[in-house]
Amino acid sequence: MACELRFGVVKSGSSRLVQQLERILEFLTVLPLESTVDKHYALIRKHLEQAGTPIGPNDLLIAAHSLALDLTLVTANTREFERVPGLKLENWLIDSVIILGG
C-alpha cells in the first residue's frame, strides 16, 4: 500500500527517499481499497486472534486488500504475513514464491 511506503520514507527524514518513492509511484498503479476488504479484514483478524498469532493493524489491512483482489503480496516481511491463510506471498529479495493453504 502506498501509505505504508510513504510513511516509511517520511519517517526516515530523507527528502531524497521521498522524491525517489514519488518517482517510482508515478509508474505504478495504486489500487483503491475494494468494498470486500473489510470482510477479509474481519475474517483474518478473527482467525489470527483465535490462533493467538495476531499481526499489526497495517499488515492486517494490507493482507485483506491482497486477498480481496486475489493478488500476490510482494514483501520481505514474510514471517508476519505467513500467518494469513490463503495469502499468496513473494519475497523478491530472496527470489522465492510462497503460497499458503486456505
Automatic annotation (TrEMBL):
Record SUPFAM superfamilies: PIN domain-like (SSF88723)
Magnesium in keyword set: yes
GO molecular function: hydrolase activity; metal ion binding; nuclease activity
Domain PIN intervals: 3-86
Pfam family, one: PIN
UniProtKB keywords: Hydrolase, Magnesium, Metal-binding, Nuclease, Toxin-antitoxin system
Requisite cofactors: Mg(2+)
CDD domains attached to this UniProt entry: PIN_VapC4-5_FitB-like (cd18748)
Family to which this protein belongs: Belongs to the PINc/VapC protein family.
Protein known as: PIN domain-containing protein
